User: Which sequence fits this backbone?
């Protein structure tokens, strides 16, 4: 028997569910303006969806806000753009907070909070607190992921933004080890832990915010809004630190300059809260709520019923996390301490690469809508294991230009992984368990990937004094990610459309996507959610 059948069977006689099914077979039968809109939809363009695109993600019909758009279409388009903005700004601000800590760990925290006669030891201790932010993420995934599937996406995302912003602001107020002794690093670790809890609950909701408002056949592009947040945040954080470093002497920067970057978080978070509090709940969650299918114990259900999707999603994230930790965090230490080059040059290399990612990540997400998402991901995972053997020889020339090119190349590969990643991870789980499943996959992958990566890089370099062990470690993570993608599955668009049509919010079926990610020309009927491959392939 289908493992999700009990949950869906409980709502089998729900009139809203039956209304959604009748609308699927005969849009006019649903009655009211919703039925009329559904019936008129196909006339807007061949195979067009509600946002004026075909199943492969190309624009074929008129835009929702174009001359032929109806009032509901324009309203939906407005909600989608608001969701995209909220997802992008919120994750950017939260990752600014996270990234400014990461950069400070590499540049100043070893000296101020973990003084030691050996600079490498101080850096290693500072990276230990960096790892705490990853280790605490699963707690955020468990707590906020569960809440996101029970009380909704919007309210949880407001809470995570407040938590991360407050912790970052307070870090800027901390006394150093010279003033407070061991109390200072203890407080730093505590606030870093709080940062990690907030970020752990943020990602899954930010991904669903846009992907559940947008066309499921363009999920790669819309979900990439949350993925653009980290490079934007990283760009802002490193830009702030680079500007402060340029304006201040090294002594001034160590004395008070680094604090300014943390204190700016208060202003940025206030803006993010304003955006998110003016946002509607997603149509998919509204449909799940209306159908009476909200899970009471989503964490237990994910571990009991969707183990294979969870393992696939976790492993798919390992290589991107480690690659990002190498080329945005540890590269600062490697270039300054191992190669003896100025701190500003290392920061500039990361800034240039992060700036390009702002455009490359949504491009990669859009490409994954037109091509098979898994194949694109597999190719990028293989490239991530090859690139270290290109970068390190370039870096050893001590040419600033070649180092910048090496970092850019790594972050291009990371973009090809990171752009499709949000859609790929979300597609592994049923809509009613998607916040929990995505959050758990994201946070647990962080523990075995990004959390320990700077520590392992530092330890390997200290032990062997050569880059080959570092490259070998990255190859290992690439193998894990390839395994995860092979265990995963392609998208099943019909279930999301069925949930949305329960409330009359969804687009008319645009045809099933074939195994290459292209839409069929002839629309096919959508099965009921309980028969979808989310359930049958989850174990």
Assistant:
């Amino acid at each position: 028997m289908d493992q999700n059948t009990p949950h869906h069977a409980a709502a089998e006689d729900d009139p809203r569910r039956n209304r959604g099914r009748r609308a699927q077979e005969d849009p006019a039968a649903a009655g009211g303006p919703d039925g009329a809109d559904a019936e008129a939809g196909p006339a807007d363009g061949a195979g067009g969806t509600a946002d004026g695109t075909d199943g492969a993600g190309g624009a074929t019909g008129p835009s929702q806000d174009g001359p032929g758009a109806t009032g509901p279409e324009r309203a939906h388009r407005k909600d989608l753009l608001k969701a995209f903005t909220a997802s992008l700004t919120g994750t950017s601000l939260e990752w600014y907070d996270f990234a400014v800590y990461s950069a400070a760990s590499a540049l100043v925290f070893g000296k101020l909070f973990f003084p030691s006669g050996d600079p490498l030891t101080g850096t290693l201790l500072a990276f230990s607190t960096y790892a705490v932010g990853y280790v605490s993420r699963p707690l955020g995934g468990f707590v906020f992921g569960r809440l996101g599937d029970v009380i909704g996406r919007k309210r949880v995302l407001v809470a995570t933004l407040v938590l991360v912003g407050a912790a970052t602001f307070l870090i800027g107020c901390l006394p150093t080890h010279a003033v407070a002794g061991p109390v200072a690093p203890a407080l730093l670790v505590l606030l870093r832990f709080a940062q990690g809890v907030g970020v752990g609950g943020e990602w899954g909701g930010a991904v669903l915010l846009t992907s559940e408002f947008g066309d499921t056949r363009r999920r790669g592009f819309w979900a990439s809004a949350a993925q653009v947040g980290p490079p934007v945040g990283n760009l802002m954080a490193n830009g702030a630190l680079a500007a402060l470093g340029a304006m201040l002497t090294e002594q001034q920067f160590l004395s008070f300059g680094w604090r300014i970057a943390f204190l700016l978080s208060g202003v940025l978070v206030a803006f993010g809260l304003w955006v998110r509090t003016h946002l509607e709940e997603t149509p998919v969650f509204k449909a799940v709520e209306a159908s009476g299918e909200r899970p009471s114990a989503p964490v237990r259900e994910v571990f009991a019923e969707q183990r294979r999707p969870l393992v696939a999603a976790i492993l798919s994230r390992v290589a991107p996390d480690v690659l990002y930790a190498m080329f945005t965090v540890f590269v600062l230490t490697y270039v300054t301490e191992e190669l003896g080059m100025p701190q500003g040059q290392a920061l500039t290399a990361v800034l240039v690469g992060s700036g390009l990612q702002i455009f490359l990540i949504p491009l990669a997400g859009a490409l994954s809508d037109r091509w098979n998402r898994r194949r694109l991901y597999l190719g990028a995972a293989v490239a991530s294991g090859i690139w270290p053997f290109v970068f390190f020889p370039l870096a050893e020339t001590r040419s600033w230009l070649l180092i910048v090119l090496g970092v850019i190349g790594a972050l291009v590969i990371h973009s090809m992984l990171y752009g499709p990643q949000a859609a790929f991870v979300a597609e592994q789980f049923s809509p009613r368990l998607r916040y929990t499943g995505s959050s758990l996959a994201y946070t647990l992958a962080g523990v075995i990937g990004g959390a320990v990566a700077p520590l392992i890089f530092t330890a390997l370099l200290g032990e062997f004094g050569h880059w080959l062990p570092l490259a070998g470690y990255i190859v290992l993570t690439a193998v894990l990610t390839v395994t995860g993608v092979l265990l995963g599955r392609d998208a099943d668009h019909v279930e999301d459309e069925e949930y949305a049509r329960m409330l009359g919010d969804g687009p008319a079926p645009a045809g099933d996507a074939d195994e290459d990610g292209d839409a069929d020309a002839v629309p096919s009927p959508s099965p009921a959610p309980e028969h979808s491959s989310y359930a049958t392939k989850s174990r």
Q: What stands out?
A: DSSP finds 24 helices and no strands in the chain.
